[in-house]
């Protein structure tokens, strides 16, 4: 096996022969990929969810090269599809050199795309600002005179930004997505996380809503539901901060029921107006 110094010399020689090929050399003191520690998922800013990214690794790509390396994307492992120069950041919506739109980064989390902290209580104002900025630059109308590939990438990027924004905008969908990133989900059509007392309470609320004859009665249910959702949101945030994923899952299941009631209340109010 080559020593570290000899390996560096070999890599340097290859770089001289192939200046356009990215080289990922090992750093002194670096450990094998399998020994890199995982970070606390609930107290960090999410980056791309590419394979191995959780361990501080990223794909290095180039002509004849596709492997894991410990260097970051910012160090030039990902190149522009058009000019083949390093993109320099991730996610890269446009090449800094030739300015062409880039394809969506496979596996990137919505938090990373929207430049948000990986937290349940994210800054929704910042989220909206980021959304408007991206859509102004990525909207397909801006690329009607561009190449077919650029039109395709702009449509894909714009659709992805839309989906990311809609997912992160509301606490319920945001929390469910965070559980999904952690390999947990709430199955559709089940009463997972809801006890008999809670389900009985929901039945009573639905009956009261069906029987409501005035705006005042419907508004009373609306305010009660809003208060319960706010309380569940606070409890879910606390659970996620502590890393109590099962508790968060149960709370989010209750939020789904309350959100359904909220939608029914809106329909009822529109009928009574």
Q: Give the N-to-C terminal Cα separation.
A: 79 Å
Count of runs of 4 or more consecutive helical residues: 8
Number of domains: 2
Radius of gyration: 24 Å
- CATH homologous superfamily of the largest domain, by name? DnaJ domain
Helix content: 40-55%
Give the percentage of residues in beta strands. under 5%
Describe, in short, the structure shown:
This protein has helices at 4-17, 110-113, 124-138, 148-169, 171-181, 196-211, 215-242, 245-272, and strands at residues 58-62, 65-69. With 273 residues, the chain is mostly helical.
Labels describing this entry:
273 residues; Monooxygenase; Helix Hairpins; 2 domains; mainly alpha; 2 strands
Topology:
Blueprint lengths: L3 H14 L40 E5 L2 E5 L40 H4 L10 H15 L9 H22 L1 H11 L14 H16 L3 H28 L2 H28 L1
Antiparallel strand pairs: 1-2
Helix pairs in contact: 3-4, 4-5, 5-8, 6-8, 7-8
Structural overview:
This protein has 273 residues and is mainly alpha-helical. The protein has 2 domains: 166 residues, Helix Hairpins (Orthogonal Bundle), CATH 1.10.287.110; 77 residues, Monooxygenase (Up-down Bundle). The protein is 51% helix and 4% strand. It contains 8 helices and 2 strands, in the order αββααααααα. It starts with a helix and ends with a helix. Pathway: Cofactor biosynthesis; iron-sulfur cluster biosynthesis.
């Amino acid at each position: 096996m080559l020593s570290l110094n000899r390996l560096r010399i070999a890599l340097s020689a290859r770089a001289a022969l192939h200046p356009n090929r990215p080289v990922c050399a090992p750093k002194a003191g670096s450990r094998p990929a399998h020994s890199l520690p995982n970070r606390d998922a609930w107290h960090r800013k999410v980056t791309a969810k590419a394979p191995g990214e959780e361990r501080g690794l990223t794909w290095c790509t180039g002509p004849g090269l596709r492997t894991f390396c410990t260097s970051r994307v910012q160090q030039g492992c990902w190149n522009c599809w058009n000019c083949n120069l390093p993109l320099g950041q991730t996610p890269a919506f446009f090449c800094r050199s030739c300015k062409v739109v880039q394809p969506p980064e496979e596996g990137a989390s919505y938090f990373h795309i929207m430049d948000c902290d990986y937290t349940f209580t994210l800054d929704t104002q910042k989220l909206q600002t980021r959304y408007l900025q991206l859509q102004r630059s990525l909207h397909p109308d801006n690329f009607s005179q561009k190449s077919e590939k650029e039109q395709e990438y702009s449509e894909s990027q714009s659709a992805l930004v839309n989906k990311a924004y809609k997912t992160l905008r509301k606490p319920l969908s945001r929390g469910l997505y965070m559980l999904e990133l952690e390999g947990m989900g709430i199955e559709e059509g089940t009463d997972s996380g809801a006890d008999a007392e809670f389900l009985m309470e929901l039945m009573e609320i639905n009956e009261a809503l069906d029987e409501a004859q005035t705006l005042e009665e419907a508004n009373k249910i609306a305010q009660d539901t809003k208060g319960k959702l706010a309380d569940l949101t606070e409890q879910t945030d606390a659970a996620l901060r502590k890393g109590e994923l099962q508790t968060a899952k149960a709370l989010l299941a209750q939020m789904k029921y309350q959100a359904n009631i909220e939608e029914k209340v809106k329909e009822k109010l529109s009928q009574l107006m």
